[in-house]
Amino acid sequence: MPYNEPHPAETRIISKRFGLPNSASLETFMANEGYAAIKKALGMTPDAIIDELKASNLRGRGGAGFPTGLKWSFVPRTSPKAKYIMVNADESEPGTCKDRLLMEFDPHQLLEGMMIGGYVMGAKYGWIYIRGEYRYLIDIMDRAIAEAYSADYLGDNLHGTGFSFHIRTHSGAGAYECGEESALLESFEGKRGIPRIRPPFPAVSGAYQSPTLLNNVETFATVPAILLMGGAEYAALGIPKSGGTKLLCISGHVNKPGVYEVPLGFPMMRAIEELGGGMRNGKKLKAVVPGGSSCPMLTAAECDGLTLDYDALAKVKSMLGSGGMIVLDEDTDMVRVALRIMRFYQHESCGWCIPCREGTTWLKKLLTRFVEGAGTQSDIVMIGDLAKNMLGRTFCPLGDAAAMPTISIIEKFRGEFEDYLAHGPKPRRSYVREETLREEALAWHGQAAAIPAQPTV
Amino acid sequence: MQLSPQLESKFESLLSNYPEDKKRSAMIPMLIYGQDELGSVTPELIVEVAARVGVQPLQVSEVMSYYSMLHPKPLGKFHVQICTNVSCLLTGGEDLWDQACHKLGIGHKQATADGLISLEEVECIGACSWAPAIQINYDFHHEVTPARLEELINGLTEKAHAV
Predict the structure, then answer these.
(1) What ipTM was reported for this prediction?
(2) Which of A7, A126, A142, A253 could make a disulfide contact with A85, Cβ separation 3.0–4.6 Å?
(3) Rounded average pLDDT over A384-388
(4) Does B75 touch chain A (CB under 8 A)?
């Protein structure tokens, strides 16, 4: 099994083929319910498919958690314009590494989800926008697409059904902002990745100003399973309002970091203790980033009894986000973490909206001053004020994404900032681990070698 | 400009991925595949891509300056990218970064004098559950220990001498 061992507590729906030999091949896919969902879909009306999605309670897996069935219903299917399908595979949210696995180990599942989207929308073309760093995944997806064409699952008049659909990959070139849907579309059109003002939303005016169905990789990859098992049954895997399963990327100070598929409503402490194998070196838990670095940080006390689903996390004023769960132990220096998070957002701010561009820059300077031991009491207040003034004042959520974790850290771990003021700068903690955690992580290089040679920079 | 046959066919296939009147969409993929072969986004490449997608060279320059993977100057033959974002920071990414800088005697976005190795401190590369992670050109290396980093960098020098 590549990357990490499966865990008995998992409910493997979209990751069910991950461990199979040659799981990325069409042959393995076909032997395991491959392209059965699109066959079923072609016998259903588009409205019936959207109803199944609504019944499934599937919510967007990219981070925003918008109900997928509703999003699909917003696309004006009767519009005379061409309709397009777009997959967001620009996975860049710190803490998130799930779309990689979905494309590496089950590329056909994603293609099938897109085809169903194409059928529902009456779209003929779909693209997968993959971040440039994931070149080997572009190659894997291209191979899968070629296989699908040769088996008549992509192309014109597929298997004589009259349904035609074409898919291509599209490489990004390094920009977190392009994971935001409207910036992604700008970038796709060969422009700088800056967000568009909405409305109109991409469903109405997306790629080339045409109606565009844009979802995350995990969302599309879930659609075939929903059609096969039925929306209600899929919903029942999770809890009310948060249907089904979600890939959880556990990282940080745990013994067994990895990507695990769990039903929504899974207890957070079980995720840390059982899936994650407990805290590394027997340390105590200090904080958790529940769903990627833009989500407000939770203290250990808040995590107690908390379940992983959209509503439970909203109740503690955080988010399930993309499922990138980062676990921090008691020795973690939260001031440094706050700075590292802000350095990221400052680097990635596209510069279009002033509150985000200037706010992230000021916050980075203030936090750097703190870490270097020159912070002042009034800086603590200023960090909070600046961050709060970014909230809701930008075209896209990047400004909020930078502000929310900062506000949570300064409010929940204010003592650590005070400590810097009282005792001066702290030496940086070394996290070096001399031994590799798992041999399979290294053994993966054997597989990488099997991918055709890449041109090098 | 004269393109290699491989790049010529790659450009043609990239251009065919979009509707006839929307060739501009191929711009960024063409720049990155062009850079892979040429070592950087050269002024000639900008002119060539502009002509093929039907925009002015200035419009290509304007776009390329936005993307962190597109470089106007050549990097090292091996571009070592070390992630120090949160998950990697918590598992030793910053220690790896210091180690690489110290070993190679270079810093962020610099290359060794022989042009063999360049270094970049990068943002999240999507390997959080297998942190700390680095990328050398497009290859991922997971759960990198200091000893492994040493081995990887030494391996690059050997690879270069073997050619």
Answers:
(1) 0.97
(2) A126
(3) 96
(4) yes
